[in-house]
Input
Amino acid sequence: MAAASSGEARRGRPLVRSAAQAVDQTVSRAAIVAEARAWIGTPYHHQASRKGAGCDCFGLVRGVWRALYGPEPEAVPAYSRDWGSVTGKEALIETARRHLVEIAPRAIAPGDVVVFRIRGGKVAKHAGIVSAVAGSAGGSAGGADGGGATGEGDRFVHAQEGAPVCEVTLSPWWRRRIIGAFSFPGLEH
Output
């Protein structure tokens, strides 16, 4: 798969052509956000993906996928908490690129998946689903490059070790750590 130019990403076109674009159904951003919010309160459990019982950040995204599209597009192998820190393999971002449509971080809208690099020089280990973008009903907002909106009122749903799934502000601290943004395939336009 060849990647498109970065100019295409800034215009909201996919960076990666993938199997995600072969999905035969459409979903709305509102349905994605509603499903993500339905997971709020689910306890954190590494490698799990069961609403109300337990999930991690990746399990949350997988669960939303299953609710909207049906079976997951690939079997998920066991993964460690280090997400490839030892090998340097970007497993989380690579998986997102295989099944979601990559967009520019500055173009995030409700229902999009954001992937974070918590520590500089390390692999991406965290993901969440954007639930609100201030001043927009699904338009663009400021991203990791500092462009766009201020981020006030931007929110996302995520699962973080030691806490149940929750909806939090996409604060400047989180925003600076976004290294990838993705839309679910088949979004209604």
About this structure: Helices lie at 6-10, 29-38, 57-69, 91-99, 172-175. The radius of gyration is 15 Å. The chain has a mean pLDDT of 82. Residues 47 and 56 are 6 Å apart (CA to CA).
